[in-house]
Amino acid sequence: MLRFAGFELDQRRAELRDADGSPVRLRPKTFDMLYLFAANAGRIVSKQELMEAIWPNIHVGEDSLFQCIREIRTALGDEERSLIKVVSGRGYMFDAEVTGAPADLVVQTESVSTATKEERTTAPSAEMHAAPAARQQSFRGLRGWAAIVMSFCAILGLAAAAPGIAPNLIFSRKPPVVMVMPIAAANSDAQSASMAGNVTERLSDGLARIDTIRVVTSRTKPATALLAGVSASVVDADFLVNGELQRSPNAWTLEARMTDTATGEVKWTTSVSVGTDEIETSVQQSRLAAGLGHELALRINASLYPDARGIALNSPADNAKVVVEQAVASINQTTRERFATAQVMLENALTEEPDNVDLQVTLAALQTRGIQMVWYGPVEMTASETRARSLLERALHAKPRYLPGLEAYCRFLTATNNFVESLVACARVLNLDPWNGGALYQLGLTQLQLGRTEDALATFKQADGFDTPAVSRWTWKIGIGWAYLMLGRNDEAVEWIKKSIAITPASGRPYLLLAAALQRAGHPDEAKAALAKGMALRPNSTALNVRPPDRNASPAFVEASLGIVQTMVDVGLPRN
């Protein structure tokens, strides 16, 4: 048992408890990292040491390390970064008086059971289970911890297919295994070979973060012609993912497929293209891996809940699908009238099918949109928040790892300023789809409003690096611009807000932010022109309805927001 700063860290129960003795939830790897810090208090621990200990034999990017550290700081309330200190150029130091001694560790060397995996995915915790006595082994110190977390860091697998074939991919209780083969370079040159290798590595690293599957990689590139005949006994995997990377003058194109190793049948194919103009090579690699990985993650998740009811055309379930499709089209591009029509349509459909999870999630997402657009009166607003939360909680009770439900819940909690809950909900989405740009954007908004502006900027930039789904890219670009504006880096704010407007010019808010950034950057005439465009798109905008709600927001965020709104007023925004 380790004690510090009013907290208890119980290794045997894998539990962090606060001053009241209440458990504080942490993901397994986040708990492991906190224990490493506490066991090495007062000593500088390098990034390399941390990554080798927490992710042994797996190559992951530094964003995984940063995410764990952000989660630890949130759990400890270390917003001032007084407990986990950055030592420039050297690493991190846990600066707290720690009492107690690290316990001997009991490590499970067998595969994690399905029940344990489900518990971790449904409600992230740090629960560990003991292995038989013959497999127990004690470890002490930082290096010893590498063996402790090894059984948790490579747990992946695949149950992926396009929606039309998902019912054919119902797996056994044991998580299936997918082998990621080295991507082949169609062009025989060093640049293509290097690019293919880096994309393979990034794809494998991302898949390794998905809680519900197990992944292995192959260092040997098999001949493409042999893939269809490879058996599961040879590769020790249920599925193979492989592809070829083609270089053209202005783009890279990745053609990929997933093969059933038992039958040689190709279950799913996709094509991802990334332009090379004005984009760094590392970003090209990231977007190629993310484009493939994001689609793969969605299909993995869809296969967790195959619909085996044998739906017939024109059945109630088929009608619900049509209603959902029509309503989804109204969520992002809607007028107040279309919004009301979609809400009635979904409510009627739910009356016929009250347990339909997709209808529940879609109605909650629509109501979240109404909350964001302030299309409800004060009484309706409260009722709609309660209704949306209830729908999402029902949906997630039925399908606790269903990505559409988790995404909608992440967005709802951010939109209603429930920021602490939002951090957890958005992290659950990223545990199932590490490339999910929508969840990253919502996470960035949450961090921004909690006063963690630097963290928010890093999260928005991560989303921009993945660019998945590309249709939402304007959101994280405006997020980057907003964060820069909050940090007083006005020229950079102008650049990113303009990039967002270039993609989606029909929204008024970005123009208002741009007006504030231009004014602060010393361009008053351009600021007035931007404000005029914003007012034309949002003619009723005032200082009172432009500023974000401050409920549960940090004082630093509220103060900075008021300053930005005042700058808009200085340019010409009406006060009320």
* DSSP summary, beta strand count: 14
Question: How much helicity do the residues have?
Answer: 40-55%
Count of DSSP helices?
22
Low confidence ranges: 103-173, 220-235, 308-317
Overall average residue pLDDT: 79
- Cα Rg: 25 Å
Shape designation:
globular
Major sheet details: 6 strands, mixed
Task: Output the structural class.
Answer: alpha+beta
Strand coverage percent: 5-15%
Distance between the termini: 57 Å
What would you note in describing this structure?
- This protein is α+β, with helices and mostly antiparallel strands.
- Strands 9, 10, 11, 12, 13 and 14 form a 6-stranded mixed β-sheet that branches. A 5-stranded antiparallel β-sheet has the order 4-3-2-1-8, with helices on one face. It has a 3-stranded antiparallel β-sheet with strand order 5-7-6.
- Strand 1 and strand 2 form a beta hairpin.
- The longest helix is centred in the middle third of the chain and has 22 residues.
- About 17% of the residues have low confidence.
Give a concise summary:
The protein is of the alpha+beta class and 576 residues long. The chain contains 22 helices and 14 strands.
